[in-house]
Amino acid sequence: MEKKRIKLNALQSKTLVLLQILARDPDSATPVGDNGDIRITRLPHAHGNHMHVGEFVIASRDATGLSNKSVWTALSRKGLVRENWEEEIILTAEGLAFSTGLENKFLTASDH
Q: What's the domain of life for this entry (predicted)?
């Protein structure tokens, strides 16, 4: 049986790509075992109209999904984050590898 293609809405995609960036930042994430899952240890906080996510500066409006329970529930249901996201945020190996199509949006590093 062919695996069903995962579809994300815009807010879910933005949230997932931010989690992927955090997962690659050693100050924000650590590996969980040998299966490729990553524990997010620090979520960024907005100051003014932006926040720092890894080495990038992100507009706060692009990160609203980080505090949206519906987004987390959808990402969990689709297997991109673990179900216990309210206790700890674990990005699954599938979530880390998933292409949102937004990866190029965050290729410019912060200058501050």
A: Bacteria
